[in-house]
């Protein structure tokens, strides 16, 4: 309303000025015109102030509206920028974590390979230790058996002899496994030792002799792993006697098909050999002079 009134006043003033410019009235009209001018000037001043206030208010309102309209997208953009920075930071962290994980995996694989090599080396070492343990156990068993033999024969049999019941036995294999003799030379060696070739008096002694020579093999040929014993039929073919001329010869100890007296010069001396199938059938006859075997001696313990 103020703007409209002001506009009407301006029109009136303009009309008045037009009227005054055209009319040539007396001084009264001049006074009237001065009063109207003052009122018009006052109104114009008030109008200018009002317009200024209105312009200021409108400027403030527009500024607020502009700021408000710009604030929303600015905050959204700020949020987006912040999120983008956060994502970039996280992306860098992820890349660093991935690189660290890759390095850790490579170290783990390297350690695994090294550990695998160490395990194989340790396994080889353990296998070697196991073999040594087995060898030591075997040696321990052998030493224990030797100790038992020494304890049983100490003071009763010569060194290198084995005590069984009240008799001392010597096996040539225990001194040398390569030297073999014919029957006469073997008996002569026993005599030089103060003994004679073994005479098997009973089944217990037969079993003892068979078990003792079990591990005393010198050849892959079965017939060359025997030991001369003191039985012969040199005096009368087919009549086997012991060298002490006392003990009766047990026929059941001959192997199947023995004695067979093979060869041009015959076989007149007895040999005992280990048999895994039947420990009671272990004798066979051989040529006393040409065949070479190990031998065993016996003599009473002291």
Automatic annotation (TrEMBL):
InterPro entries registered for this protein in UniProt: C-type_lectin-like (IPR001304), C-type_lectin-like/link_sf (IPR016186), C-type_lectin/snaclec_domain (IPR050111), C-type_lectin_CS (IPR018378), CD209-like_CTLD (IPR033989), CTDL_fold (IPR016187)
Alphabetized UniProt keyword annotations: Coiled coil, Disulfide bond, Lectin, Membrane, Transmembrane, Transmembrane helix
Membrane-spanning intervals of the chain: 39-60
Domain C-type lectin: 164-289
GO terms of molecular function: carbohydrate binding
Pfam families the UniProt entry points to: Lectin_C
Keyword Secreted in record: no
UniProt key word DNA-binding: no
Coiled-coil annotated residue ranges, if any: 95-153
SMART domains for this protein: CLECT
Cross-referenced SUPFAM superfamilies: C-type lectin-like
PANTHER family the record matches: MANNOSE, PHOSPHOLIPASE, LECTIN RECEPTOR RELATED
Name the UniProt record assigns to this protein: C-type lectin domain-containing protein
Organism: Lates calcarifer
Name of the encoding gene: LOC108892502
